[in-house]
Amino acid sequence: MKLSVAAPTTAVCTNRCSCLPKPDNSKSCFALESICRTNAIKQFSSQRLPGKLFLNVTPETLLQPDHQRGLTLELVNNSGMSPDQVVIEITEHSPTHDYELMRRAVCHYQQEGFSIALDDLGAGYSSLRLWSEVRPEFVKLDRHFVDGIDQDSFKRDFVSALVSLARSVNSLVIAEGIETSAEYQTLCAIGVDYLQGYYFARPAPRPEHYQFAQSTPAGHFGQSLTNIGQ
Questions:
Q1: Lowest mean pLDDT across 38-47, 68-77, 166-175
Q2: Which of 57, 44, 58 is nearest to 12 (CA)?
Q3: Host domain of residue 80
Q4: Less Cβ around it within 10 Å: N or C end of the chain?
């Protein structure tokens, strides 16, 4: 399991169950996802980290008939956290077919106080439709659009358009996979809300906090970066 964090104004934490080999048995995959979720909540709580914890959840898990509703809320409450500290991050590994059921599942989490994020925007099977259907609070750009963005006018125009769209539908944009100062400066100039990548720090078992003394093109000062991994 890998937990990675980055943000310009608040700490953001993500549990990456997808970095592990995917079991052939779907039930095993769901069980593994549940274990990762439980461990991520325990680590985040025990280390008293700031910001929000992003928990990866596949659509298949949300759409399972025997999916145990209320389990994540119980884990969060038992850890001493509150749901507004947690973001359910939807990660597509296969096409979504039942959008009505997906909407109901997402609505259930939102009613419990959780926020929703859509991962790898631009790379999924139907991520633009999924964005319009579930209306998440956060969208994460696929790193393809971040890699070398400072040298690619098409990528800059594409990301600028997505940021503009996100503003109009009240979603915040997270760019992941930033590895160079030029990518960082370009994304700040475009107006991306949150930034994540090795340029800031690599995952570590316990978080480290970094302070940026200089201002960014977006006008932020003394921003903190937290990173946690296992």
A1: 68-77
A2: 44
A3: 2-226
A4: C
pLDDT digits (tens, 9 = 90+) for 170-197: 999 999 999 999 999 999 999 999 999 9
Q: What is the mean pLDDT of residues 52-74?
A: 76
CA distance 181 to 42: 33
Domain count, the chain: 1
Position 125 scores a pLDDT of 57
Q: Which residues make beta-bridge pairs with 2?
A: 16
- What is the distance in angstroms between the CA of the first residue and the CA of the last residue of the chain? 6
Instruction: State mean pLDDT over 98-104.
Output: 79
Name the token pair of 5: 């964090």
Answer positive or negative: Cα dihedral of 88, 91, 94, 100.
Answer: positive
* Coarse DSSP helix, strand, coil percentages of the chain, rounded to the nearest 5 percent: 40, 20, 40
- Give the separation between CA 83 and CA 52, rounded to whole angstroms: 10
Choose the weakest-confidence range: 8-17, 35-44, 120-129: 8-17
Q: What's 198's domain CATH number? A: 3.20.20.450
Which residues on adjacent β-strands are paired with residue 141? 121, 175
The span from the CA of 129 to the CA of 214, in Å, is 39
Q: How confident is the model over 53-62, as pLDDT tens digits?
A: 999 887 777 7
- State whether the Cα torsion 104-105-110-111 is positive or negative: positive
**DSSP SS3 for 128:** helix
- CA–CA separation, 102 and 12 (whole Å): 25
CB 149 within 8 A of CB 187: yes
